[in-house]
Design brief:
- The complex is a heterodimer of chains A (213) and B (320).
- Chain A has 213 residues and is of the alpha/beta class.
- Chain A has two domains: 107 residues, Glutaredoxin (3-Layer(aba) Sandwich), CATH 3.40.30; 94 residues, Glutaredoxin.
- Chain A contains eight helices and eight strands.
- An eight-stranded mixed beta sheet of chain A has the order 2-1-3-4-6-5-7-8.
- The mean pLDDT of chain A is 93.
- The longest helix of chain B has 21 residues.
- The chains are: A alpha/beta (213), B alpha/beta (320).
- The interface between A and B is large, with 39 and 35 residues.
């Protein structure tokens, strides 16, 4: 049985008609699939079947180790949304619930290579000198989380130094313990900066530039 | 598993240079209903809001909005948004009004993104936000076990013992959301549970909920995360320590009025005072929904008030 209802599938089809260039969904799973790997693979298969501009690549986290290393994927299920190049946009765990909108959003910005960030923010991001790794912890039931995820992904699109991960908190309890995730969205930048909530663009940028100087 | 998409985007440009007939601050049930009524009256309308839906987004189930036997708050607000987007209404979503001020023949608003808009009339429908308990360590431990959003954070408390503070429908809704994840839930209530019987019944049936009536929270304890709470009898000296990893505070909400407090009179509860036409004391300034002194903070009431506010604004504009 399909994961996407016919109504949602049609909505996605309409949205994906707006894709400009082709894109690829690169997913990592394994032979004995992790509890949510199967659903994640099914979701991506359904999405790639909707538009011929979406190509799906499936790798095994264990036997395709060199690919996992190439994409710097360290846990599964993992989904990389990339185009002609890898923009550092990642989803760890199923992008379900409210995060489904973030997945579609990532596909749209990768395809158009354009973000909605302000000109000022884009200029600041050009001045980064060090790599910045943003992790946004979410739950599928959190209506405020996509704002933070989408902002982080747009920053990754704009800067080759930024990698941005959505992390579905309930699927990675060891990371919740490590980063003390008791609220979502919770953002961890370069392991040193953390904040909670869907903050305005200027505030998010301030944390990113502090990490990337 | 659900897969939720935002309403289809039909963008109407948001323009700083123009003078709008009507600016609506807030996009919850009141603001969105006002927007539809304003559009039907052909008012050139701008809506400014942090998000579409406000507190309704956090309602896991709505069973009191006529026309729907059962709908989630998020789905209901998506339907609101779809309806609004059928009209040429400018939506500035993701921004927030920081200052409302009066100017000649109208109003001006400043936003957190540094934008400045002007309008001939304004409807404030900015809703409410969660109220603090104001006990020691509460603010330090926000995001470290103290939560004001069970809908968002409940899945993070799997297998843990938690406390929910509050006696009304929001508190019992939080209790019921936590039942799926937490091992045990204490419901701390100062006097007695006032929630709808259907919610109380569901909580009792789970066998996971212990109601602690007649207690108030004295303090929350924990270094870098919540470790326990201390509660004391409201009519007595008994003190109880509960080892909990999470504290969900659901003791009501406070109106979002900071941006407008120099312009419009508020009552002792910081609510905007309106008459039965949603008019404030300031000509051209209207208010609707949970931000006002209208009793009963319900989605259906807010939506109705939003309609009234838009029609009052329309009459004001054509008469002035």
């Amino acid at each position: 049985m399909a994961l996407l209802s016919e109504k949602v599938r049609q909505e996605v089809e309409n949205l994906l008609k707006g894709l400009k260039d082709g894109l690829k969904l690169v997913i990592f799973t394994q032979e004995f699939e992790c509890p949510t790997c199967e659903d994640n693979r099914m979701l991506m298969e359904e999405l790639s079947a909707i538009s011929d501009k979406v190509r799906l690549e499936v790798f095994d986290f264990v036997s395709d180790k060199e690919k996992a290393e190439y994409y710097k994927v360290d846990k599964i299920p993992a989904t990389v949304v990339g185009g002609k190049e890898d923009y550092g946009i990642r989803f760890y765990g199923i992008p379900g619930g409210y995060e489904f909108a973030s997945l579609i959003h990532a596909m749209m910005i990768v395809s158009s290579k354009n973000s909605t960030l302000s000109t000022e923010t884009k200029e600041h991001l050009k001045r980064l000198t060090k790599p910045v790794h943003i992790q946004v912890f979410v739950t599928p039931t959190c209506p405020y989380c996509p704002t933070a995820v989408q902002m982080a992904h747009e920053m990754a699109l704009e800067s080759p130094l930024i990698t941005s991960d959505m992390v579905e908190a309930t699927e990675f309890p060891h990371l919740n313990l490590k980063y003390k995730v008791f609220v979502v969205p919770k953002v961890i930048i370069n392991e040193t900066i953390e904040f909670a909530g869907a903050v305005p663009e200027a505030e998010f940028l301030k944390h990113v530039t502090n990490a990337g100087r | 598993m659900e897969f939720i998409l935002p309403a289809e985007m039909k963008e109407v440009p948001v323009e700083e240079a123009k003078r709008y007939d009507l600016i609506i601050i807030g996009a919850g049930p009141a603001g969105m209903t006002a927007a539809v009524y304003a559009a039907r009256k052909k008012l050139d309308t701008l809506v400014i809001s942090k998000n579409v839906g406000g507190q309704t987004l956090l309602a896991p189930a709505v069973e009191t909005y006529m026309g729907y036997h059962y709908i989630t708050g998020a789905e209901l607000m998506r339907k609101f948004e779809e309806q609004v987007r059928q009209f040429p209404i400018a939506l500035s979503i993701g921004d927030e009004v920081t200052t409302l001020s009066r100017e000649d023949n109208g109003f001006s608003v400043l936003t957190s993104q540094g934008k400045n808009f002007t309008g001939k009339a304004v409807i404030i429908a900015s809703g409410r936000r969660a109220r603090f308990l104001n006990v020691p360590r509460e603010k330090e431990l926000i995001g470290r076990g103290v939560s004001y959003c069970a809908t968002c954070d409940a899945p993070l408390f799997g297998g843990m013992e938690v406390a929910v503070i509050g006696s009304g429908n929001p508190a019992l809704t939080a209790v019921n959301e936590l039942i799926t994840y937490a091992r045990k839930i204490y419901n701390i209530v100062q006097v007695s549970v006032k929630a709808d019987p259907v919610l109380i019944e569901k909580a009792k049936k789970s066998g996971k909920v212990e109601f602690m009536s007649g207690y108030a929270v004295k303090e929350i304890q924990g270094e870098d995360k919540v470790e326990r709470i201390v509660i004391t009898q409201t009519k007595g000296d008994k003190e109880v320590i509960l080892d909990v990893g999470g504290v969900f505070i659901e003791i009501g909400a406070t109106p979002n009025v900071e941006f407008a407090q120099d312009v419009v009179p508020l009552n002792e509860l910081n609510e905007i005072v309106v008459d039965c036409d949603c008019k404030t004391e300031v000509a051209g300034l209207f208010a609707a929904g949970d931000v006002t002194n209208v009793p009963e903070k319900q989605i259906i009431v807010a939506a109705g008030e939003g309609a009234k506010a838009a029609l009052s604004a329309y009459h004001y504009l054509i008469e002035s």
